[in-house]
């Protein structure tokens, strides 16, 4: 409970001057992504799901673009059990995405219930935050609550899931894996489900100097839903 009280106090301090609810798209400045997403950018306010080995970095990159569009703070709701398995988040590592300590609030949570509670609290705050939740999976009920909270606060949420388990209300569902292309590290991004848009695949890099996405290749259509198996 002390963590939630501290989170509420921080949010109250920044409620004014946040990202305004737009019901539109936040440009990623990546021509492929902005061209295929249904609102000319990442839909907002909304909750999105990201899975795969490179989910953390991809979410941080999106958070950087959203902060550049006016969000005052990234709230990252970390699961302590996941930190024990995979290692703790390294705050200075966010610097490569242009996110300094003044723009970052790490919330250490004990288990999925605390992660969901902290994420919902941050999304609902009228500050237009960008919020990341570390989860094993996202079900329909919790997903609906998070989506309603994002709409109430004009916020954008990312649920980083270890497993994909059935349908949920996430606006976009990404799977992101690390790769190498032309000697450069890249992300292999599979946007396999998107409401009002077209599933697609792309290879993307993050430019540390420009603090922006950069394309490596064009889109390719994935298999149809009947041809692919989602594990």
Describe the structure.
By secondary structure, the chain is of the alpha/beta class. The protein has a domain of about 160 residues: P-loop containing nucleotide triphosphate hydrolases (Rossmann fold). The chain contains six helices and eleven strands. The protein has a nine-stranded mixed beta sheet, with helices on both faces. Helix 1 packs parallel to helix 5.
CATH superfamily of the domain at 2-10 and 30-175: P-loop containing nucleotide triphosphate hydrolases
**Largest beta-sheet characterization:** 9 strands, mixed
CATH architecture of the domain at 2-10 and 30-175: 3-Layer(aba) Sandwich
Approximate shape: globular
What is the gist of this entry?
By secondary structure, this protein is of the alpha/beta class. The protein has six helices and eleven strands. It has a domain at 2-10 and 30-175: P-loop containing nucleotide triphosphate hydrolases (Rossmann fold), CATH 3.40.50.300.
Topology:
Elements: H1 2-14, E1 24-26, H2 31-36, E2 42-44, E3 46-51, H3 55-68, E4 74-79, H4 80-86, E5 104-109, H5 112-124, E6 130-135, H6 140-153, E7 156-161, E8 172-181, E9 184-194, E10 200-207, E11 212-215
Parallel strand pairs: 3-7, 3-8, 4-5, 4-6, 6-7
Antiparallel strand pairs: 1-2, 8-9, 9-10, 10-11
Helix pairs in contact: 1-5, 5-6
